[in-house]
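Q: I have 293 residues here and want to know how they pack in 3D. Can you give me a structure?
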Amino acid sequence: MDFRQLSYFLEVAERESFSKASQAIHLSQPTLSKMVKGLEEELGVVLFNRSTRSVTLTEAGKVVQHHAQAVMNAAHNLQTAVADLTQLKAGKFTLGLPPVIGASFFPKVITEFRNRHPMITIQLVEEGGKRIEQLLQEGRIDLGVVVLPVDDALFEIVPIVKRQLKLVVPIQHHLALGQEVKLGDLRDESFILFRHEFNLHDRVKEACIQEGFEPQVAYESSQWDFIYELICANQGISLLPETICAKFDTQKVRVLNGVEPSIQWNLGIVWKKDGYLSHAARGWVEYVKEVFS
């Protein structure tokens, strides 16, 4: 058994397909199948159900996947730790950023960090907050920026930003002339929300439920600009971060600053509890703390 066998096995398990995995790792499908078959023979178990159109893990395969991922994570941590000893001025890390957070706060921050540390590479992964938490737990990214709170039993947390959500309505909406609104008064409105994989989706729904109603969701999107266009087209209302609201044309929509009770939108840098962080990743955390302090 070697690392190649384990990594090839994990690739097939992730993609549920030998052909897709072979394309991703640029290895012929017969060679890939032979490598996985060799792993099965060495372990004495069948790892995949091959009788269906998609390749699925057997019960034994699920156990091997769990331990194989732990082995690969440990190997990655070993390589990173050794590299840190010999390359103190260089390095790389993987950063998970939800699109709305990235667009709001981080283009300038990333640029200035790279100007300070041109030999450090930041690999960006754009996903919703829930997916970022999952990737951190699986050891597939090093750091994430997410909406707080998160489970402090699973993650190390550095708070960086405290904001509140603003109500955005079409310019012709009956609330457009006001300054403040009670959240409970929105029970009959059509909501346009970020998709469920974004923590912002849950934050809005939970706040409404605490006020005694389930929001009527007309549309969901992963793109803030599409949400904006739907509001302009009088398709509903939304609760959005003020940094995004600042980009809107006030001739087309109205942003109300006061929502009672307020809905917090607090951000933090997070990483896996007891996980290894390279010097490059720790340098990023310290730099972001400095910027937002």
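Q: Anything worth noting?
A: The first helix runs from residue 3 to 15. The chain has a mean pLDDT of 90.
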